[in-house]
Amino acid sequence: MATFEIPTEQWAQVVEATGGPAIYKKIPVQQPGPDEVLINVKYSGVCHTDLHAMMGDWPLDVKLPLVGGHEGAGVVVAKGSLVKDIELGDLAGIKWLNGSCLACSFCMTSDEPLCANALLSGYTVDGSFQQYAIAKAAHVAHIPKGTRLDEVAPVLCAGITVYKGLKESGARPGQWVAIVGAGGGLGSMALQYAKAMGLNTIAIDGGEEKAVSCQALGAKAYVDFLSSKDLVAEVKAATPDGTGPHAVILLAVQEKPFQQATEYVRSRGTVICIGLPAKAYLKAPVFDTVVRMITIKGSYVGNRQDTQEALDFFSQGLIKVPFKTVGLSELQDVFELMKAGKIVGRYVVDTSK
Ligand code: NAD
Ligand code: ZN
Ligand code: ZN
C-alpha cells in the first residue's frame, strides 16, 4: 500500500463571516476519524452554492469559519481503521453530501440526500477549498484510475445534480427538455448529459458568449432571456409541434424563470426545480396546472448510485464541459465573476497555487 507524507499545515480559503470574503490562509490539516478518509484535493470546482453559502442566502445555518467547496477531486492519503473499500492512493471525490447516517428510512431507501443528519461539504462541515479535506468513506465518489482530476471535478456536484434532475423529469429519448441557466456550470453539464441520454435540448440563458457555448454543447435551440421579446412563445416554437418541451430543468439563480416555466412546459410536462435563488418562491396558475396536468418537483443532488452513474457517463467520454483553471488563491475573483453572471461553464481551482 502507498504511504503519503502529510503536512501539519496547508493552504485553504476560509470564510470568516457571512458575506465574505474568502480569505486565503494557512490552517491545520485534520486527521480522519475511524469511518473517514483524508483526501489530498488537487482540483475543486466552484459551484454557485459556494457563493450562496458565503452570502448566507439560505434558511439553513452555515458553519463559521467555513472552508467551502464540494467538487473536490483528489487522492486518498489517509483513512480510518473501519474503512475497508478504498485504499491509499485511490482517486476519490468530495461531494456536497459528505456523509449521512445510513440508518434512517431515507438512507435505507437510497434517498440519503434527505437524511436529517446529513453532513454537507463546504456548508455544515469543511469542504474542498483546501489541500486536505475529510469525508465519510461511505460517501466519497470513487474516481477511476487515470482520470483527469481537473476535468472530472465539476461532475462531483454539477454533473450528479443535473443527471439526477433529468432522471427525475421522466423525459425519454427523443423528447424535448428546456435547460434554464444553460450557459452556467450546472447548465453546461445538463446539455451534455441530456444529449448523452438521447434528449433534445432548448438552452435558455443570456448573451452571445453563452449562446455559442450552448450550441457547441449540443443545444438544438437557444433562447436569450436578456433580449427575447416573448420568451414563452420562443421556447414553445423551438419544439417541432410548437406545444413546448416535455420537461424544464430550472438551474437559474433568479426567481422569474421559476414563475415562468409552467407557461411554456407542454401539457403533462414536468418542471424540475434545482437552482436555489435566495428568498425565492414558486408560483404557478392553479387552473393551468390542473387542466394541463403539469408536475412541479424539486431535485436535490443525487445518491451514491447516481454518483457512480454520472461518473460512468464521464468516463465514457460523453461529458465534455468548458472549464477554466485558476489557483485556489484566486477564489474570491471567481466569486465576483459568478455574482455578475459572467461565467461560461465552470471554474476549477488548483489547490497547489
Ligand atoms: P452558475 O452561476 O454557473 O449558472 C447560473 C446561470 O443562470 C448563469 O449562466 C446565468 O446567466 C443564468 N441565469 C440567470 N438568470 C437567468 C434567467 N432569468 N433565465 C435563464 N438563465 C438565467 O450557477 P451553477 O453553479 O450552475 O448553480 C445554479 C444553481 O443551482 C445555484 O442556485 C446552485 O446553488 C444550485 N444548485 C442546486 C443543487 C441541487 O441539488 N438542487 C446542486 C447544485 C447547485
Ligand atoms: Zn454544487
Ligand atoms: Zn440517514
UniProtKB/TrEMBL annotation:
Protein name in the entry: alcohol dehydrogenase
CDD domains named in the record: CAD3
Annotated InterPro entries: ADH-like_C, ADH-like_N, ADH_Zn_CS, ER, GroES-like_sf, NAD(P)-bd_dom_sf
Cofactor(s) needed by this chain: Zn(2+)
A single cellular component GO annotation: cytoplasm
Start and end residues of each Enoyl reductase (ER) domain: 19-349
Organism field: Podospora appendiculata
PROSITE patterns: ADH_ZINC
